[in-house]
Structures are given as C-alpha cells and as structure tokens.
Amino acid sequence: MQPRPSPTHPDPLKNNAQEAKIFKHRVFFCAFVIFLCFSTLIFRYGYLQIFEYQTYTTLSQSNRIKLQAITPPRGYIYDRNGILLADNRPIFTAIINRQETPDIETTLKQVTPIFELDQDAISKIRRRIIQSHRFEPITLKLNLSEADIARFSEVSYLLKGVSIEVKLARYYPYGDLFAHALGYVGRISEKEAAKLDAERYAGTDLIGKTGIEKYYENLLQGKAGYQQVEANAHGEILRLLERTEPVRGNDLVLHLDYGLQKMISEQLAGRRGAVVAIDPTTGGVLAFVSTPSFDPNPFVSGVPNSLYQFWRNHPDTPLYNRASQGIYPPGSTIKPFAGMGALHYGLTDWEFKIRDRGAFSIPGDNHLFRDWKKTGHGIVDLHRAIEISCDTYFYTMAYKMGVDKFHDWMAQFGFGAVTGIDLSGEKSGTLPSTAWKRKALNAPWYTGEMISVGIGQGYFTSTPLQLAMATAIIANKGQHITPHLLKSTTGIQDYQVNNHSDGYVKFAGSPQDWDLMHKAMRDVVHGRGTAGNLRRDLVGYEMAGKTGTAQVKGIKQGQRYNEKELDERHWDHAWFMGFAPADNPQVAVAVLVENGKHGNSAAGPIAKAVFDYVVHQMNRNINATTTATPHAISNPSPLTLETDHE
Known about the structure:
The chain is an alpha+beta fold. It is built from 23 helices and 20 strands. The strands form 6 sheets. Strands 2, 3, 4, 5, 10 and 17 form a 6-stranded mixed β-sheet that branches. Strands 12-11-20-19-18 form a 5-stranded antiparallel β-sheet. The chain has a 3-stranded antiparallel β-sheet with strand order 1-8-9, with no helix packed on it. Strand 19 (573-580) and strand 20 form a beta hairpin.
C-alpha cells in the first residue's frame, strides 16, 4: 500500500513550480490571442471605415436609391405641309426588376396568365434576362389593355419587382396610308441588341424595322435620360432625387404630300398596284403608294401571330412593297428611252422612216415578231413611233442596237440597279446583257431575245420606282437626280440632305433631241396617240407620257388573249409614265396597275389625277389637310374611257 503524501513528505510526482509556470504561459497565450483578435477587428473596422467607405456607402445607397433610364421620345415625322405622319403616344408597359425579384422563374409563372403571355413571349423574356445587365429592368409586355392592368392590380402586392410604367410608343395616325414609305418600329431583337449602343438605347424597347423608320433610325432615336429615385424595401418609389431629361430624336420632314398620297390611294382602292411621283427638280418623292397596304400600328407592341399570318398569306400580299420591290416587265413605257438610245448610237434620226406592215423578222429568219396593230401602222418615223407606240419600229432599233449597247444606254437611266432611295430592301430588276445571261443562266445570248427586250418584255424587268426615276431624268433632259423622301431634319444631330444633281446622261446627240422627244411624248396625249382620252378636262397645262402593257401569261406568236376565258390575275399589267406640265415639268410619275389590261384606261387616269393635283392644288395652302383624319379608302367614281392596245 502506497503511503499518503504529507506536508513533511510532499508528493514526489507533483511539481508546483512547473505547474505555475505552465499556467502563466497559458494565460499569456490566451491574452495574446484575445489581443490579436481584437487588433484584427479594430484594423478591419478601420480599413472598412477609411479605405472602403465609398464602396460600401454606394452599396448601401443602392438598396435605397435606384438609377432608372428614361426612354427618349422618338423624333416626329411630318409631310411637306407639316401634317404629322408618325406620332408618339403614352402606353402602359409591364416591367420586371430582377434586383427586387427573389425568384424570377416563379414570378414569370405568376405573371403569364395575368398579362396573357404565350410561350414565345416567355422565351424571349428569358433570353433578354440572360443577355441584359442585372440592374436593367426587363419589359414583360407593351401596350397593356385595361383588363391586363385590372388583373395586375388585384395581385400586385404579391409580385415583388413587377410594376407598370407609362412609356411613349410610336403611333401612325393614318394607318395603312403611308405604311410602305414610313415603315414601322418593333421590339428590339436579340441580334439587334448585340449591335446597339447600350447607353443610347437604355430603357428603349423599339427600333425601326422597315421604311423611313429603319433608314433614319440614327436620326430618329434620341438620347436616353436618367433619374435617381428613393425606394422602400418593396421597391416602391418614395421620392425623386435627381433627373436628367431625355433628348428627343430628330424630327423629319418628308417630300411626301398627304393629300396626294390619299388621293392616289383612293384611285387605286380595290386594285393591286403602285404609284411613285417625283419632283424632277429636286428628286423629292411626292407620293409613294403601294396597294393593298396594311396598318403598321400592331407591329409596335407586337402584332398577333394570327393577324401577321393573315397578311402574309393573303393573295393580294399587302406586306409587299410593290413600289420599290415589285419587279415587272415595263412594256412600251421604255420606248422613249430606247428611242433616245437609237439617236445616241446614230441608228436613226427624226427623219428616218420605216414601213410597218404589222410584223418584223430578223434577216435570214422567217420568224415574225408582230406589232400590236395587226395591220401595221404604215410609214412611221421616231416621233410617230412614240406617239402610236409602234412595236415594229422599236423591233428594228433593238435589232440594230444589240443587247450590250442597249444595256449600257439604259443603265444611265437607272435600270438594272437600285436607285439609291432612302429606303431599305429596294430591288434592282433586270437589265439584260450577254454577261448577265452567262452569269445568271449559264447560257449564250441569242439575237432573237433582243427583239422582245427592245419593247420592255422578255428578260427586262423594272420596279415602279426605277421607271419613275428614269421618267424624271427624261423630263430633266438627261439630268440625273437620286430620288429621296427626306426633305429636311431638325434636332440634336446634323444631317445634310442632298437635293443636287448627280450627273447627266452621256448623250452623243443634240440637246434639241430631248425637246423633240418631249414633243413626241406630249403627242401621245395631245396628238393622235395611245392616251388621247387623257386630254379631256385638262385645264391650264399639257402633259407628256407613254402608255404600256406587260404580259403576265405567255401566248403563242400572233395569238390574242381571250380575256373572258382568262383568270383576272393573268391579265396584262397596265403602265403609264409621264410628266407635267410638258413645257416645265413639276412632277414625273410612274403608275402600275397589276392586271389592269390597258395603260391608257387603267393607269393613265391615275397619272392625270396626280398631274391635276400637283399643278392645281399641291402648292396651295389647303386648310382642310391640317385637320385631316385617318382616311378610309373608297372606290373611285367610274370613268368612261377609250381603250386600245396600250
């Protein structure tokens, strides 16, 4: 048994001095750790207060103060007389702010029935959320209905981060009247967003998609503004702290005339066609009509798919811009240009005559190219050939000229190339040549093909806009001016509108030849020509022009159409080109009426109405137009007209 320790006999295993020393070390170590922790806390506190003060102050403020982009108003668009064609109006817009939304997916499911969003809309919203900055609000739906707002109001307290704002959106007060010229705006796509200046387009949902709206997007889009607001924990705005106003985009004034555009649309009502009227002194486009048309307003907030499919699949193709994209054989309307080409190359003069027996054949070939008048026109010179639209005369000139000379000459009037008008999507048509056929069809050019090309058929195609520009050039006696819609602009950006000539047709003949061609075109109406019916009721001026037809359905040589057995859409297209007054042109016009059969009866009266308006009304101050309301197209009054081939 082990003896107990006593005061006189201490425990040999216990060392009090050692234990005291260990205890002392532990105390010092704990004190050091405590000191180190407090020092770290104090240092960190000082660092945050001194060096990170600005950072955390900003973060703190961001929980209370929010920076919001203010959409800039889009520039207004006016006609030449100051009539507002493209306006801005307030609409209610639903937006979602991700910073204030705890669960995006849950919120999207909740708002889907409230705002009646389809799967396509939800998919686009998700993609915008991924591509945009976290602080940037995302638009859920534009142009909310009263029902949308009512449904949202009932449950708004449950939808954190979702709110309704008032924004300005585009509005076209005259609906379909200017749709193909103005175009329309629509939601910014993902592809477009990737190319845009994020700062300039902050808070903006809409961008120009077609027409003037697209071409002059850079001028029409203004500069975004910003505002600082104080919000509570629920994201509700308490007060405005600071505001930088947005700057509206440039206002545009166009050469277009509301009254002229409306009158032409009424003349074309119920028919497929196009009319382009140009001021030959400036190149300004006074009228740009394509019918049928469409209302561009639904595109602003998102056109319903059912309506879009209706327009897209409609047999009359209202979305199709016939004026600058419609490609048609120009028919006999090219004869004045071809005649000037024959003079240029020395193939004819004003005294040279042919005997027209009703047909032409290439030397060594018995194939007959027949004139529209079966019995022929007898002795015909260039003046008479224009006046009565003698095919045989121009068959002869076409054979002499050949396709490549013809191509080089007609190209100077703008055929076979875009005009350069300030609209996107313009088509160039086809001006054939040996090189063109080899490239396009991998085939050689045959002499016989030139005969039909010489009267505006075969491979030769043009748009109404091209023909209107070419008509303005011949009215200018060879002076070329590029057509354009923009007359002037005012606003934050400088832009110089070019109203000047960009050259002359290189013509080897005499300046008098232009005057003689004007006289021949005048006699188409005022002589014994194909449009003699148009001189009725002309007051105070004379007009010059040329009728034309273009085959839609091919027939065998020498045969005639039986229109009673032919579907309407296979009838010939009707053309008229011309200018007025004949001695001092103020307007040049090209009129196309699809399946109109005869240029003098279908297209000519519309051109005459254009000339009457420009000469007698356009330059007057008409008070009625300043209070004009959106038009309703009505049928024109019936006309009793003479008819013949052209």
